[in-house]
Amino acid sequence: MAPAGRLLALLARPQSPARAGAMAQPSCFALELPGCSLAHFAVGTAGAAAPAPAPDPRAAALLGPPGRSYALCVPVAPGRDCAARVRAARLLQRLLPQLRRGPLGRCQLRRMLRYCPGGGAGGLQRGVLLRDPDDSPDTRRALLALLDSCLEAPRPSLGEFVGDESHRLWQRPWELRGGREWRQVDPERVVPAPEPALHPVVPDLPSSGVFPHREAARAVLEVCTPFLPAARAVLELVDQCPGRLHRGLFPVIVVEGLDATGKTTVTRAVADALQAALLKSPPACVSQWRQTFDDEPAIVRRAFYSLGNYIVASEIAQASARAPVVVDRYWHSTAAYAIATEVSGAVQHLPPAHHPIYQWPKDLLRPDLVVLLTVSPEERLRRIQGRGPERTREEEELEANSVFRQKVEVSYERMENPGCHAVDASPSRERVLQAVLGLVRDRCPQLP
Ligand SMILES: Nc1ncnc2c1ncn2[C@@H]1O[C@H](COP(=O)(O)OP(=O)(O)O)[C@@H](O)[C@H]1O
Ligand SMILES: Nc1ccn([C@H]2C[C@H](O)[C@@H](COP(=O)(O)OP(=O)(O)O)O2)c(=O)n1
């Protein structure tokens, strides 16, 4: 490691064009700041050529001295195949708890994404920014030891942020030389970059969480079968469901909404009133594996919920031949929660209305009506508290993170073909029931 004085002298030396050209491909990263805003930066040749606009002071405080920041990232789709994607997602999931232990435990962590500035899903990397307020050498040692423990591909990348005496910001990537020794390579200039038109994760969503058809989700569980027996069990159930479904003539009504908005209460009451079959997604036949998949990385968890919807579709097709069908959650839940989780930042960073990500999958049985129950955050909290302690991890996040809740709600509202019909679920149970039944009568002319 170069002494600090030599390092600063090196950083302050102007880059010759040939040297700049030899640096890594230009890339960008997005950093989630307090308050859920996103700061974007260009790294490498793009940064070196640019003048130095002043960064957001909150971002500068996260990246520059005093203290030291590190970027630890894993490519999302290293081999471009599904197996490599799942390996990469599991690696990141395994690394995250290790970043909260030992000497790394004192670092602040922030979610970061690396991406190619031209858009597209290629080159996307997920990771974290670790901010060591004490700039301790133990932090660097612990991070390099962590990299050493990642022997199989894909291997994470590590970069270190440094400021120079002219207050410019640089990133120095660490590289393994000769397969044995970690060395820092040429510093790359880091400058603020404009926000891209579309959040950088969106082009990747159809492969990583909002699967546009059954086969895309199926492929994910298929590569999980060697280490996750539940994946084989779910695939066997999915494969028993016919690809082309013939639904009955009775109406199919889906009820959606955040947790504790009253879906269970409303679906039971509507099913009673219409003498309808009551189904839910994920269906009972896969619920024994739900916790197993909830503990897996997002790509695997979403594939499970997505395939659960295809299994429910087959139940809907059969039941709708005999009676109306009411369904508690369906594809809109899977998509809205996935979009809200993957798209970092605040509501304004969601893909715009009418983006293809909000379109119903072409191969999934469509309901006649989707009702979205909405209640104020305060009333929702009252209902959660009144219900007792059992919650999923994401529900806890919902409570803690009102931005996440807003992103789920807005994603629900943007869903298309079919879209959601919002119903205010704050009034009494009876009034909410009547509002939903009114919608059913208006929108489902085939109701006997
Ligand atoms: N309209 C309503 N007014 C008051 N409380 C309600 C109403 N609807 C549901 N609840 C109560 O709120 C809690 C959450 O409702 P639930 O139907 O379980 O929601 P979800 O299925 O959406 O999680 C339950 O305790 C339920 O009895
Ligand atoms: N069809 C579905 C159903 C649930 N999910 C996911 C979305 C959230 O992470 C959880 C919420 O489901 P949960 O059953 O806990 O919520 P409720 O209790 O029904 O309100 O499951 C899904 O992705 N797709």
From TrEMBL:
Q: Which UniProt keywords apply?
A: ATP-binding, Coiled coil, Kinase, Mitochondrion, Nucleotide-binding, Pyrimidine biosynthesis, Transferase, Transit peptide
Gene Ontology molecular function terms on file: ATP binding; dTMP kinase activity; nucleoside diphosphate kinase activity; nucleoside monophosphate kinase activity
Q: Where in the cell is it found?
A: Mitochondrion
EC id? 2.7.4.14
Instruction: State the superkingdom.
Output: Eukaryota
What Gene3D superfamilies does the record tag this protein with? P-loop containing nucleotide triphosphate hydrolases (3.40.50.300)
Main EC class the enzyme belongs to: transferase
Cited InterPro entries: P-loop_NTPase, Thymidylate_kin-like_dom, UMP-CMP_kinase_2
Main localization, broad class: mitochondrion
Instruction: List residues of the Thymidylate kinase-like domain.
Output: 255-435
Q: Which Pfam families does the UniProt record give? A: Thymidylate_kin
Q: Which GO terms describe its cellular component?
A: mitochondrion
The answer to keyword Transferase applying to this record is yes
| Reactions the enzyme catalyzes | CMP + ATP = CDP + ADP; a ribonucleoside 5'-diphosphate + ATP = a ribonucleoside 5'-triphosphate + ADP; a 2'-deoxyribonucleoside 5'-diphosphate + ATP = a 2'-deoxyribonucleoside 5'-triphosphate + ADP; dCMP + ATP = dCDP + ADP
Q: Name one GO biological process term.
A: dTDP biosynthetic process
Which PANTHER family did the record assign? THYMIDYLATE KINASE (PTHR10344), UMP-CMP KINASE 2, MITOCHONDRIAL (PTHR10344:SF4)
User: Belongs to which family?
Assistant: Belongs to the thymidylate kinase family.
What is the official name of this protein in its record?
Answer: UMP-CMP kinase 2, mitochondrial
